[in-house]
Amino acid sequence: MSSAPGTAVTDPCKAMEMVKKGEDIDYQGASGNVDIDENGDVIGSYDVWTVKDDGTLEIIDKVNPAQ
């Protein structure tokens, strides 16, 4: 569902419509490519950023979805 081959799609509503029709999709999330395992769980980890007062970015945390 979330990796090639499949039609690249960024809209989650459109993605759900396509999956319900049995179409293969390659879901591209807001953070970039999103891979999902056979249980529907997100694979990978994500940094949590904040914008500091001087306009620079700082990584303040990391999210590790269940794998």
Could you walk me through the main structural features you see in this protein, from its secondary elements to its overall organization?
It is a single chain. The protein contains one helix and seven strands; from the N terminus they run E-H-E-E-E-E-E-E. The model has no long low-confidence stretch (mean pLDDT 80). It is elongated. The longest helix is centred in the N-terminal third of the chain and has 9 residues, at 12-20. It is mainly β and 67 residues long. Helices cover 13% and strands 40% of the residues. It has one domain (7-63).
Task: Describe the structure concisely for a colleague.
The protein has 67 residues and is mainly beta.
Layout: helices, strands, pairs:
Layout (H helix, E strand, L loop, with lengths): L6 E3 L2 H9 L4 E5 L2 E2 L1 E2 L5 E2 L2 E6 L5 E7 L4
Parallel strand pairs: 1-2
Antiparallel strand pairs: 2-3, 4-5, 6-7
Keyphrases for this structure?
about 70 residues, mainly beta, 3-stranded mixed β-sheet, two-stranded antiparallel ribbon, 1 helix, elongated
How would you classify the helix and strand content by structural class?
mainly beta
* Beta-strand content: 35-45%
Quote the distance from N terminus to C terminus: 17 Å
- The coarse overall form would be elongated
Largest sheet descriptor = 3 strands, mixed
Low-confidence stretches: none
Average pLDDT: 80
How many structural domains can be distinguished in the coordinates?
1
- Per DSSP, the total helix count is 1
- Give the ordered list of helices and strands: EHEEEEEE
Biggest β-sheet: strands ordered side by side in the sheet: 1-2-3
Helicity level: 10-25%
- Strand elements, count: 7
CA radius of gyration: 15 Å
